[in-house]
Prior knowledge:
Cytochrome Bc1 Complex, Chain D, domain 2; two-stranded antiparallel sheet; 12% strand; disordered N terminus
Amino acid sequence: xxxxxxxxxxxxxxxxxxxxxxxxxxxxxxxxxxxxxxxxxxxxxxxxxxxxxxxxxxxxxxxxxxxxxxxxxxxxxxxxxxxxxxxxxxxxxxxxxxxxxxxxxxxxxxxxxxxxxxxxxxxxxxxxxxxxxxxxxxxxxxxxxxxxxxxxxxxxxxxxxxxxxxxxxxxxxxxxxxxxxxxxxxxxxxxxxxxxxxxxxxxxxxxxxxxxxxxxxxxxxxxxxxxxxxxxxxxxxxxxxxxxxxxxxxxxxxxxxxxxxxxxxxxxxxxxxxxxxxxxxxxxxxxxxxxxxxxxxxxxxxxxxxxxxxxxxxxxxxxxxxxxxxxxxxxxxxxxxxxxxxxxxxxxxxxxxxxxxxxxxxxxxxxxxxxxxxxxxxxx
Length: 380
């Protein structure tokens, strides 16, 4: 991350700032410019750390010399990095009206949708190519979603945009997601002791509570922010590692009648239990749609409403496979990955360890792809 400041710089010999700065240079970062300062030439610095108590921003200049910038309350910061700046402009032009300025899914047109546009702030994307234990989408996943859209939804394809513009949008969406995740982590930490409910139960005067909060922030904020940043960085970097992409161990089993029949038995049987959600005929009307189920990501916590829900609070209708519309892509490899790793943020679980015999997932893929045609021909 870089900042540009005309005047408020004091030299520092703190060697740790230089080390932190070197670490920061390894990450994909944005460039920032302080637009609140007065006249004078600007210099660029790499951000190392920020102390909220003293409001000093530790930086390293282009020559690797540590320095500190005084950041006053109310200073305005503008994103200037080439990729993020372009991505921001493209996002505001093409995406903001649905997904909102902050990526919260509450843009001006979102109120007209029955299912709200995706809220990026949890860092969760449904359709990914990564393994079940990798919580974040890869850049390739986001690129494919923006470029191709999501069939059967309001998310359009941006196929006419040049690839470099789609890549820029992807970087900005990642930035929005990371910022949202950081805010959620900080909110969860502070809510333990300083939520409205917690403060209401305190007997101390308001001045003492405010003082305690200020001390806790001064003592713990820097360490917690560093910890949260490292966790986020690790999660997002894991998603882009080649070894975390789901690659079938064998080539696709030919979609023969025998393979389709094996897939049907797995789909309707107790091993995969696909029919419990999708129904025996794949119409999305399985018994789980009318029962009380665990909330996504909260095993053992039952919803107080019947049906299936995702982590954004939307009721989920299992895919009607007879329609032949596959939101995460209809390529055999797309469907294989969804069966293998599930659909993140939804009740669609991963079956990579359940369907562990050679070719079983491919058999289910072949059956799923046959369902729309069998129904059109008067089959089950």
